[in-house]
Every structure is written in structure tokens, then in C-alpha cells.
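S2.1 Query sequence (Fungal lipase-type domain-containing protein)
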Amino acid sequence: MASKISMSNIPAMNHVAYSSGSMVPRSHSSGQQKLVLALAVLVWLTGGGRFKDVTTGRASSSPCTLFSGREIIRYGEFVTACYEAFDLNPKSKRYLTCKYGKKSLFREVGMGNSGYEVTKYIYATPDVNIPIQNEPSCGRWIGYVAVSSDDAVRRLGRRDIVITFRGTVTNPEWISNFMSSLAPARLDPNNPRPEVKVESGFLSLYTSDESDNKFGLGSCREQLLSEVSRLVKRYRGEELSISLAGHSMGSSLALLLAYDIAELGLNRLGPKLDVPVTVFSFGGPRVGNSSFKERCEELGVKVLRIANVNDPITKLPGVLLNENFRVFGGRYEFPWSCSCYEHVGVEIPLDFFNMQNPSCVHDLGSYISLLKCFKREDVQKDEEDFLDRARESILSRALNINMEPLKNAASNAVNLVQSRRTEFLMDDTILGLMNSFALYILL
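Output C-alpha cells follow.
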């Protein structure tokens, strides 16, 4: 089952919900919510073990490489740019493509200071044989590839390759979304892995091409893999990261691409050196079965899912046959488990709804607005109280058994955490101390 950090499981923690068109959360525990967001990211980064830098996969305490909630918002805004730049005017010459050129895209959508440069536009072709009025079956613009500029590299501490995908807009795409049968991915010709299965509609959108078209447009997959290979080769020798972001259907394509890159080893620079591959999923559906999830984890693909608990898309496909129905009593696996869909990665559940505008439950703008509403000054007092309680509890435990070394270690660890709380990340020194405390408390 995909990891999940549930806000409702935290004591004195309220769900955040939109109750009116004002888009203001009715919960006042924004500091705690932000802290839960930080803890969720930490769990995601550790993979059940060490605390790591999300972008490099290595332990790090450098401020320029630490991951924060601001980065989640930034990747969400990259996806928003896809929607704002997509031309849906049937009378336009750019119908179903991007309204702007690659050099002006970010400037036109108000992201001129993003620090990234678009290198390629991506087109996808739904393999739908059902004739739909006013809906051509040719490839339409689905997203773009961008890379951080030299100035952004100095700020981020790495060269970031970002690939973003918009969600479902056209009728053929909606039809592809409802092709919910599982099909073997078979993306690696040298090892097809027939047990790894994904939703056939998403796979079709990812792999279908227009080889017989006069423009010779390749599949979404071919376009992406060639560009990723080119950029990785071009910036070989630099600190690299590959970040993929998508909303709704776009998050499914992002996850398929992440799996594809890792399975083919396009992110492998050496025997023990892989470019980290990270997926930011906003309101994304399930994509594949348990074997797909397990293989993504084996390959080191990191997935952070931001999902509204009221968003029906996040519960599809596999409303019944999903990760919750694979195993009986936690021990016995049902025969149909290979046909069950499973979410991949760690989920940060949000909770918002607007009676006047029910569609907001899946709207990307609502997701980003909620993430933005938590202020740093609101969370600082909650963090201080939390750390004070932690120090008091640990120190009292150490004093009771007269263990001066443990007492000193506890004080040093909490002070270190407190001094670095703005980055929401721990290094190996702090982790080692915290592990010792955990073992002591459990024993």
C-alpha cells in the first residue's frame, strides 16, 4: 500500500476544507498543517530509512539543495502553465497546441522569473477509433520539457530537468481515461516484465504515434525519451535531477515516463551513480498494479502525491479492486491481486470542498491555493512548542535513569533540529541520535 500521512491521524489536527467561494480554509491549525506537510515530505524522502535530499538522493544539509513545500508549489505552477498556454479556440491557427513559442512561454504566463528555459514541446496522440465531432485524432500539445538556467543552477545547487503535463481537456483524452483495463507495460525490450501492468488508456496515450502522418510526429514516449537522453548527455558531469509534474491524467503520464526512464537506465551515469527521478502528482489517479508499484520502488522512483480526499479522480481506476482489497487479514493474498490497481509513493491528503463550485475538488488552482495559504510565521510557534515538548520528554526520561550521555545527546539533537527547522530536513548526525532515542523508548 502506498504510504500516507493523514492529517486526521495527528492529535488536535483539523482537516482543511473550503466552505465558501472565498477559498479560505476554515481550519486555524495552519502551522500544524504545514508541519504535517513537512513530515510527509520527510517520510517520502527517507523511504523508511535515511533522511535524504530529494533532488540528489544523498544525505545533505546544504540550504541550496534542501527540499521544501515551496518546491511543491513551484512544480504545481509549472503544470498550471500548461493549462494557461493550451489553445482551445477552434478558430485559432494554434488550436490544440501551445499559444506561445518556447522562448516566450514562461513570460506570457507570468513566470518570466522561473529560472527555467523550455527546450521542447510534447505532443500526445490518443489511440481512439471512435469518431468524435470537431475533435481531430492528431497529436495535441500535452506539455513541455524545461531545464534550469545557469543562474537557477547556482541557486538550486543542481541542474534540474523538469517535464510537465497538463490534465484531460479534449474528448479523445476523456475516452482514453475510461479505458481502465490493465495491460502489460513492456517498455523495456530486453526485459518486458509482463507482470508489470498499467492502465491501457494511459499507456496508449503515452505510446501511440503518427508515423503515417505527413509530419512524422513520433509518440509522446519517443519525444520525451530522446529529449531526456539529450539533456542528460549535454549536462553530464553536473549535479542533475529529473523532476516530473502533472495534474490528473498528466500525473499518470509523468509516472509512466519516470518508470520508463528508470527501467531503461537513462538516468544511470555510472555503476553507482543515478540521476534522481522525482514525480509530483497533483490529483492523480492510479496508474498500475502492485507489480508496477513495486518495480517503481525498486528502481528508486520517488513519487509525492498531493490529493484532495474529496477528489473522485484520485480514487480511479480501481474503485473496488485496489490496494485495500489485495490482502485478507494482512496475510493472505487474493487470486485477483495482480489485477488490483495501487497508488505509488507517499500521499499528502488535503481536504477541501466548495458547495457553490463542486468542480473545485479536482481543480489544480484549488490545490495550489491551499498549499500557498500556510504562512511560515504561522508554523514557527507550533514548531517551537513541539520541540520544547520533545526536549522536555526526552530529557526527563534520561534524567529518570541517570544517563548523562543520553541527556546531553537529547539536548544536542533537539537543538540541531530547532536550528535547521526552516529546511524541514535532518542530516545523518541528527538521524543517528534520533534512532537511538527511538530504540530506547521502545525498549
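The radius of gyration is 23 Å. Confidence is low (pLDDT under 50) at residues 5-32, 42-67, 375-379, 420-443.
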